Prior knowledge:
By secondary structure, this protein is mainly alpha-helical. It has a domain at about 50-85 and about 105-160. It has helices at about 1-10, 10-15, 15-25, 50-60, 60-85, 105-140, 145-160. The longest helix is centred in the last third of the chain and has 37 residues, at about 105-140. It is elongated and about 115 Å long. The N and C termini lie far apart (about 95 Å). It is found in: Mitochondrion inner membrane.
Amino acid sequence: MDSSKKQAEPFFFADTKLNNMAKHFIGNNCRYRENIYIPQVIGHNPFKSNEEKMMESIMESCAFKTVISTVGGFVLGGALGLFSSSFAPVTVPIPGQDVKTQTAREILREMRTSMLSYAKNFAAIGAMFTIVECSIETYRGKSDWKNTTYAGGITGGLIGLRG
């Protein structure tokens, strides 16, 4: 029995020195799952760490999306309000009275009022759109382009009701 086992083994594993040398030069044959390398040409890496999964769930939550769209709408609305306030004079000349030039303080006050007005409106629209989109996505159970299209239509209809 013992001699048949010796004959079945390859010659380089029969000797312990050769076996140890082979392990030294070739390395460990045990491969761990975390060390699998998937080329980016084939696709994205399907293995995510727990931190990546947690951050992904936070970024995809409706609350986070709503906060981001509200803040983004506020900032963009403020910028648009600043831009539009430079074109629209607030004081209208009244016939029969002297034309009064505005002071810098009055101009800045009007700019602030215009910026805040635009910022609040854009923030409300951004929040409304995101809430409607998340509601549709939750109802449909899918995340595709139709959710955004439906949410845009519903949000536009709600804005039209106000006007």
